[in-house]
Specification:
The complex is a heterodimer.
Chain A (H helix, E strand, L loop, with lengths): L1 H24 L21 H6 L4 H5 L22 E2 L2 E2 L4 H13 L4 E4 L3 H4 L23 H7 L10 E4 L5 H15 L8 E3 L4 H7 L6 H18 L6 E4 L1 H5 L4 H21 L4 H5 L2 E7 L3 H22 L11 E6 L11 H15 L4 E3 L12 H17 L13 H24 L2 H6 L2 H18 L26 H17 L2 H15 L6 H9 L4 H12 L8
Parallel strand pairs in A: 1-9, 2-3, 3-4, 4-5, 6-7, 7-8, 8-9
Helix pairs in contact in A: 4-6, 7-21, 9-11, 11-13, 11-16, 13-14, 13-16, 14-15, 20-21, 20-22
Chain B lengths: L5 E5 L8 H12 L3 E4 L6 H10 L4 E6 L4 H14 L6 E6 L3 H10 L3 E3 L5 H20 L1
Parallel strand pairs in B: 1-2, 1-3, 3-4, 4-5
Helix pairs in contact in B: 1-5, 2-3
Classes of the chains: A alpha/beta, B alpha/beta.
């Protein structure tokens, strides 16, 4: 107490003498410094700031791998294994995707992440008129199990440390395909780790690849979670997503809160269905953005881990506190990339990689520098991979666990972000939870406001983006841009046509009828979908059955 | 008195990235235009029909999924087919420079790439529409 009093006096003296003199010589750059989420940044942080928060090491930080997990999920941090080096990849048809995954694995990627094209994500086959122009563009086209078999040709499912599938509306079909493929390859499911995004609620808020209305979508998502929790405990069947919410315009504190709110809705729904929440909750991953404000991003992950653990411990009366950590998957912010002077993006991604790992993630995905134009070229994705490798091997940042802990600034910011996020969570709870918040457009309005504010800040030059509103080059140096091939689209459509002619169509029709029957009950759909994909029913055909049973969702207008 | 510009902001195809379209729609509205936003997952047919039905002066297509060649092309063709090609077409999103040039050759007035300020977009739309109105009055 005495010490703090003395410190307080010393700081007052410093403020009134040294600071005043310095300000007279040179005023500060801004009247007010803020993080992007609007938290004021003080000139200086000291033990007095920790005292203000009533900071206590054991309660607020604890130890790595222990509740409340502020210091990270893993006891040994990166001293045993680095985070998984992943690159989001996929385009064209299965053969093209296979080539790119082999390239990445051969160059040191430890995980594969499958980007699906839009028709696949939305349960539409490549030969559907709605798919025109879209096949194989922002991801690989998967129409049937045959395509997944080709994608993993020469790649045993057990080779990557983790395989991640960005599937939401079609997540259960994706799971079924991987189960069928594992069986075909002779890989036991506990020899591999599959992570499926499976977060449909954020689709209604930000990402927009929903298919069916929210309630039946929740059913499909929880079928997946339950099946994996029961049968494939090494798998990660659900990823609560903040990335897309953030990229749609949300602030860091909103990113934490809206992600958690959605995750709580899934867990609540699982509870309503009589599922084992304590078992399922430990299989969670979180997919978060890494933006450019270095310290806010690091504090954000720490705040989120602590807030999630504390919230769920109470809400679900979890007995085994070790279940309250989650696998954190970080992706550098696509929206931070500029089309102007694209090589600068390499620097941005490097800073974001450092922030993402200092924040303590289990997996990291850096963007490539040319993603403001197209899916990456081979060369630019290799640079992104090398960025991870340089951060891991050359900086020393991975050699101790949670190195930013104890920083007066970072601990203060961690607490502030937690408090801001908690306020949003309370608002959402008062509305009746995430589903009600989606229906009332609470999330969408908050995100649109934040997004518009950020745009104004850039246009007013309150926020500087190098190359865009300052330090502009008159002439841009052109870079190579990836061009998707038209041939691979034709190949895909022809393959699909052949498949439909050579498979046992009677069997397919019979199984689809059974899918429809089970969909109308509350029975888990996983087993029947495995059968369906094994006889090469397509993604579109299965999704059309679900459309018939569940209906299609149309967004409400702006 | 100068008539207010009616402008349709549209999201063609399956692309769900609407952050930019929403910002532009709001900015155009704040600048005094009458803005109709189609929402997501619009086919070129739906967009052109809406544009004609709403009697707009111009359409802004926003697309990030790489399907711009096919979808912009179809919109331009349909406008011609329906004798509505006095409706101007602008675009934005993730469209590489070469493709943007090609689209402009096909008749798109301007492609506003990432980082374009809304002031620039508003200015260009106003400029182009005023010019057309002047030509009509000549």
């Amino acid at each position: 107490m005495q010490y703090m009093k003395k410190l307080h006096e010393l700081q007052n003296e410093w403020d009134s003498r040294c600071v005043s003199e310095a300000l007279q010589r040179q005023p500060e750059r801004k009247a007010r410094f803020e993080t992007p989420s609007g938290i004021e940044i003080n000139r200086l942080y000291t033990p007095l700031d920790l005292q203000k928060q009533q900071f206590e090491y054991e309660k607020d930080l604890g130890f790595p791998g222990q509740y409340p997990f502020t210091r990270g999920k893993d006891t040994l941090g990166y001293r045993s294994n680095f985070w998984i080096f992943q690159q989001y990849a996929g385009f064209g048809d299965a053969e093209e995707a296979n080539k790119r995954y082999r390239f990445l694995l051969d160059h040191g990627s430890s995980g594969i992440s499958i980007a699906l094209d839009l028709p696949t994500q939305m349960g539409i086959d490549s030969d559907n008129p709605l798919s025109e122009g879209e096949v194989g563009k922002c991801g690989v086209a998967i129409d049937s199990l045959q395509d997944l078999e080709t994608i993993f040709n020469g790649i045993p499912l057990s080779r990557p440390r983790q395989i991640s599938l960005v599937a939401n509306g079609v997540s259960l079909i994706g799971l079924a395909m991987f189960l069928a493929l594992a069986e075909k390859q002779g890989v036991a499911t506990d020899e591999m780790v599959l992570r499926i995004q499976n977060d449909i609620l954020k689709e209604f808020i930000a990402r927009n690849t929903y298919i069916y209305p929210p309630r039946p979508s929740l059913r499909l998502a929880t079928d997946l979670v339950t099946h994996c929790a029961d049968h494939h405990p090494t798998w990660l069947p659900f990823t609560m997503c903040g990335y897309h919410i953030r990229e749609a315009g949300a602030t860091a504190s909103q990113e934490i809160a809206f992600t958690i709110a959605n995750a709580l809705a899934y867990m609540d729904h699982l509870y309503e269905r009589g599922g084992d929440v304590e078992k399922a909750i430990s299989k969670l991953a979180a997919f978060m953005c890494v933006g450019m404000n270095f310290f806010e991003e690091i504090a954000k992950y720490r705040a989120m881990r602590r807030l999630w653990a504390k919230t769920c411990k109470d809400r679900y009366r979890i007995k085994d506190l070790s279940k309250l950590s989650f696998n954190l998957v970080n992706f550098t912010a696509g929206s931070s990339l500029t089309a102007q002077q694209p090589m600068n993006n390499i620097i941005r991604v490097t800073i974001e990689c450092l922030a993402g790992t200092l924040g303590g993630c289990q997996s990291l995905f850096p963007c490539s520098m040319d993603e403001a134009f197209c899916t990456p070229t081979e060369q630019s994705v290799k640079i992104a991979l090398r960025t991870q490798q340089i951060v891991a091997h050359e900086t020393g940042a991975a050699d101790t666990v949670d190195p930013m802990a104890g920083s007066y600034y970072v601990e203060t910011l961690t607490t502030q972000l937690e408090n801001e996020a908690r306020k949003y969570l309370d608002e959402i709870e008062n509305l009746g939870g995430a589903l009600k918040a989606i229906e009332s457009r609470y999330f969408q309005q908050k995100i649109q406001e934040a997004s518009y504010d950020q745009q104004k800040q850039i246009q007013n030059k309150e926020k500087i983006i190098v190359g865009v509103n300052e330090f502009i080059d008159e002439e841009e140096i052109p870079i190579d841009i990836f061009k998707p091939s038209k041939e691979s689209v034709e190949r895909q459509i022809n393959k699909l046509k052949q498949l439909k002619e050579t498979r046992d169509n009677d069997k397919v029709q019979k199984i689809l009828k059974e899918v429809e029957r089970i969909a109308r009950t509350d029975e888990n759909l996983t087993a029947i979908l495995v059968e369906a994909v094994q006889c090469y029913a397509t993604v579109g055909e299965i999704s059309d059955v679900f459309r018939k049973v569940f209906g299609e969702y149309r967004e409400t207008s702006f | 008195m100068e008539q207010r510009i009616r402008f349709l902001v549209a999201k063609p195809g399956l692309d769900g990235h609407d952050r930019g379209a929403l910002i532009v729609a709001r900015a155009l509205r704040d600048a005094g235009m009458e803005v109709i936003y189609t929402g997501l997952r619009q086919t070129p047919e739906q967009i052109v029909n809406a544009a004609i039905h709403e009697d707009v002066a111009a359409i802004g297509l926003s697309i990030h999924s790489g399907a711009h060649e096919e979808l912009f092309g179809r919109v331009l063709d349909l406008l011609k087919e329906k004798s509505a090609d006095d409706i101007l077409v602008f675009g934005g999103g993730i469209i590489p420079g070469d493709d943007a040039a090609m689209l402009k050759e096909k008749g798109v007035i301007e492609i506003f790439g990432p980082g374009t300020s809304t002031d620039v977009i508003i200015g260009r739309i106003n400029e182009e529409i005023s010019r057309r109105r002047c030509n009509q009055n000549d």
